[in-house]
């Protein structure tokens, strides 16, 4: 499957070589450029195939065809359950994941009936887009909010690089049992799997480094609405760090009290906002997901 990307030459790149423009303005890697050279119509300027040594003029249209390397997601069942799309373009899609569904099929259960990945597969399939779904940064089953997915291999690689470099940012909102002592701060506690229970993570001095930033947004008598963002992305990082801070997530059955008395049937954690760069144009994109009704009710009851 091929993908075509295009961009007009701006004054900044007047008289630049096509090679320089492809790297600096379009963000292509040398490997991507080399592959495009051998495709029919792979690298064109104003509709004519050109060598990468060609000089450019302002206003010219540069078009590049690349191999995405996409394969069919035939092993993944498509789900017709509703999908809330928050943002979409030719390369990426951002959706609002509801609580209660897995991001991906668990383990080898690729035919699991309803996951976020299977909903994405059905949605894109209905539009005639048959590529593999590549989700960049999953959420736990009980966590709601923004999830980013790439529509092709190249976009996935660039978004993953943003995540590793820390330029892809996600903001969470959480309701806690108990109120942090400070209005804002950092939690730096190393984490590792619990040797006695592999479903849990624990704080240990020789674990993997983990850093969470937080800010209290609202306070009640014994609960708080807390905004959080991460410098690292360890499993259950927010859940364990808040527990270590003495204010676990409301409704958390692993690290808090859980149960019906919490007033919510799941962990009260929501991925509220995502900021990233469009993988080919470099445009900064921010996407927000509204607070779901169950967490909004907790906040309303808390501040009464």
From TrEMBL:
Q: Does this entry carry the keyword Lipid metabolism? A: no
Among the GO molecular function terms of this UniProt record, one is: RNA binding
Q: Provide the Pseudouridine synthase RsuA/RluA-like domain boundaries.
A: 91-243
Record keywords: Signal included?
A: no
Which residues does UniProt mark as catalytic? 140
Question: Which catalysed reactions does the entry list for this protein?
Answer: a uridine in RNA = a pseudouridine in RNA
**Which GO BP terms apply?**
enzyme-directed rRNA pseudouridine synthesis
Keywords noted in UniProt: Isomerase
**EC number(s) for this protein?**
5.4.99.-
The record's listing under InterPro entries reads: PsdUridine_synth_cat_dom_sf, PsdUridine_synth_RluC/D, PsdUridine_synth_RsuA/RluA, RluA_PseudoU_synthase
- Which Gene3D superfamilies does the entry link to? Pseudouridine synthase
Q: Which family does it belong to?
A: Belongs to the pseudouridine synthase RluA family.
Give the function comment from the record. Answer: Responsible for synthesis of pseudouridine from uracil.
Cross-referenced NCBIfam families, in alphabetical order? Answer: rluA_subfam
Q: What is this protein called?
A: Pseudouridine synthase
Q: What organism is this sequence from?
A: Anaerosacchariphilus hominis
């Amino acid at each position: 499957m091929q993908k075509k990307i295009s961009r007009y030459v701006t004054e900044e790149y007047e008289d630049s070589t096509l090679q320089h423009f492809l790297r600096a303005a379009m963000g292509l890697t040398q490997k991507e450029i080399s592959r495009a050279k051998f495709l029919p119509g792979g690298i064109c300027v104003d509709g004519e195939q050109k060598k990468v040594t060609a000089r450019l003029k302002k206003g010219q249209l540069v078009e590049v065809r690349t191999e995405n390397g996409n394969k069919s997601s035939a092993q993944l069942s498509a789900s017709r359950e509703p999908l809330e799309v928050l943002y979409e373009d030719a390369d990426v899609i951002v959706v609002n994941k509801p609580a209660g569904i897995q991001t991906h099929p668990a383990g080898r259960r690729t035919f699991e009936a309803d996951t976020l990945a299977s909903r994405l597969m059905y949605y894109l399939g209905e539009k005639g887009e048959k590529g593999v779904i590549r989700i960049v940064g999953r959420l736990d089953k009980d966590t709601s909010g923004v999830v980013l997915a790439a529509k092709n291999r190249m976009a996935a690689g660039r978004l993953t690089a943003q995540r590793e470099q820390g330029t892809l940012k996600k903001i969470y909102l959480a309701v806690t049992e108990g109120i942090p002592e400070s209005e804002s701060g950092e939690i730096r506690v190393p984490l590792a799997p619990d040797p006695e229970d592999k479903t849990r993570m624990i704080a240990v001095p020789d674990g993997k480094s983990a850093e969470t930033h937080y800010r209290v947004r609202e306070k009640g008598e014994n609960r708080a609405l807390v905004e959080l963002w991460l410098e690292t992305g360890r499993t259950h990082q927010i859940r364990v760090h808040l527990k270590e801070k003495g204010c676990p997530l409301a409704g958390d059955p692993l690290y808090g009290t859980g149960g019906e008395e919490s007033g919510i049937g799941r962990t009260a954690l929501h991925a509220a906002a995502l900021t990233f760069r469009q993988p080919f144009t470099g445009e900064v994109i921010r996407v927000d997901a509204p607070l779901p009704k169950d967490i909004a009710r907790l906040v309303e009851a808390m501040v009464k």
